[in-house]
Specification:
The chain is an alpha/beta fold. The chain folds into 2 domains: about 280 residues, 3-Layer(aba) Sandwich (Carbamate kinase); about 140 residues, Aminopeptidase (3-Layer(aba) Sandwich). About 35% of the residues lie in helices and about 25% in strands. A 9-stranded mixed β-sheet has the order 5-10-2-1-13-16-17-15-14, sandwiched between helices. Helix 3 packs across helix 4 and helix 6 packs parallel to helix 8. The mean pLDDT is about 90.
Length: about 450
């Protein structure tokens, strides 16, 4: 037994992580992220580290816009008064006497953010770049001095980003005559995404991401390895969740999922929305630099997809297969072997990085062999292997292949789940029967299509 193998795999995982980080840095340098951050995080012990992570992202060339949530601080200030305010469907009713307290709270929050940015030698800048109008009367309720975003002076924000500033935008907007309104910070973040060229929108809050408890897994969505939160879902899965489980989602989670639908465009606009827990160290960096992440990712473009392999993928395929070959789970293959049959290979790509592969070798007489099924160790719980095998079965049916077969030494039980059954080597097509290695003693499985 080779006792050096575990260390070898650990070293490989570390190297893969480093490569992944470099790939993301190249992809996001020069792009713009909007971060809506709850003010309730300011008092948390890890808040300075969150701000440090933001500065580091800024330092590597990612443009950052911060939108401050102020609800907790507003409530703290209003609690010292006799003013009666309430929140209806996530929106605070703001009487005129409360506006002074709202503005004071907004300034307190934004100064806290800028102070932490300055501590990291980053140039945070606050300003009132929002034209607003009264929300008015909705369903008989007068929201008084609560407003809605009419326009963001995006040209100013864009110019500040170009001058290496981090704009910090708070929840106060003014109308044409200078009247101030209390705005919803989530909607400010939403409008920024609609007005500017934004790569990612983050909702950073003092609670976990979208929970799985009491909610059936939406078709195609994935659960984080901790089992408590959804790792990622596309817009179709968001629709499924909102239609089937709206009553089991908090109002806030409903709102964030709805906002995600509004800002994500399949062809242009915001690519991804991330919902993360700011109380967890490094969550922001995990979301930016790891395809697993630490929160819930919502996407409209194809986040992970299976495609036909090319010659440029050969090193990645060989890298994936190597661990399986070293353990004896797969027969040995060289780069030349893979190149010679590259048209048979398919890969599972996550953000342009290869995390799984498989092959469909077509033979005469309506037969085809499945082989080279391999998944990166860090992603084995993500359903990649299942997706690859289902894809091959579907592809074989489209090609009107009548019988699929495979040879395996240790994974027979897993293939049974897809309808494969035991067979003897004598059941193989003639060419593969002649090539069968009795010393390896692989089990033969068949699937009639």
């Amino acid at each position: 037994m080779n006792t050096q193998l575990p260390q070898r795999y650990a070293d490989r995982a570390s190297v893969n992580t480093i490569r992944e980080v470099f790939d993301y840095i190249r992809r996001y340098r020069g792009k713009t992220f909007v971060l809506k951050i709850e003010d309730s995080l300011i008092a948390h012990p890890l808040f300075p580290l969150l701000m440090k992570d933001i500065v580091q992202l800024h330092d590597i060339g990612i443009h950052m816009i911060i939108v401050t949530g102020t609800r907790t601080t507003i409530e703290k200030h209003l609690a010292k008064t006799t003013l009666d305010t309430r929140v209806v469907k996530g929106i605070r009713v703001t009487p005129k006497p409360a506006m002074d307290h709202v503005k004071l709270a907004a300034m307190e929050v934004v100064q806290a953010f800028i102070s932490h940015l300055s501590a990291g030698n980053a140039n945070g800048i606050m300003g009132n770049w929002i034209r607003a109008r009264s929300l008015g009367v909705c369903e008989g309720l007068d929201y008084q001095y609560t407003g809605q975003v009419e326009k963001i002076q995006s040209d100013i924000v864009h110019k500040l980003l170009g001058q290496n500033f981090i704009p910090v935008i708070y929840n106060i907007g003014m109308n044409a005559t200078g009247d101030c309104y209390n705005l919803n910070s989530d909607q400010i973040a939403l409008q920024l995404c609609l007005d500017l060229d934004i790569e990612k929108l983050f909702f950073i809050r003092a609670q976990e991401a979208i929970p799985t408890a009491g909610i059936e897994l939406a078709p195609g969505s994935q659960v984080h390895p901790n089992g408590k939160i959804y790792s990622n879902m596309d817009l179709d899965q968001v629709d499924f969740m909102l239609s089937q489980y709206r009553d089991r989602l908090s109002f806030e989670n409903q709102a964030l999922l709805s906002y995600s639908k509004q800002v994500i465009d399949r062809d242009r606009g915001v690519k991804r929305v991330h919902i993360i827990d700011g109380r967890r160290e490094g969550r922001l960096l995990q979301e930016v630099f790891s395809s697993i992440g630490g929160g819930t990712l919502i996407y409209g473009n194809q986040y992970a997809h299976i495609r036909r392999a090319t010659l440029g993928d050969v090193p990645e395929i060989l890298h994936l297969l190597d661990g399986y070959m070293q353990k004896g789970n797969l027969v040995m293959r060289t780069a030349a072997d893979i190149k010679n049959k590259i048209d048979s290979y398919h890969i599972y790509a996550v953000d342009h990085a290869v995390y799984g592969c498989c092959a469909l070798y077509e033979l005469d007489g309506g037969w085809a062999e499945i082989g080279a099924v391999a998944v990166n160790d860090a992603y084995k719980s993500k359903g990649i292997g299942r997706g690859l095998l289902q894809y091959l079965i579907q592809t074989a049916r489209k090609k009107q292949i009548q019988t699929l077969f495979l040879l395996t030494t240790q994974a027979a039980d897993w293939f049974f789940e897809f309808g494969f059954v035991w067979a003897s080597p004598s059941a193989l097509p003639e060419r593969r029967r002649e090539e069968y290695n009795p010393e390896r003693n692989s089990r033969v499985l068949l699937l009639k299509l």
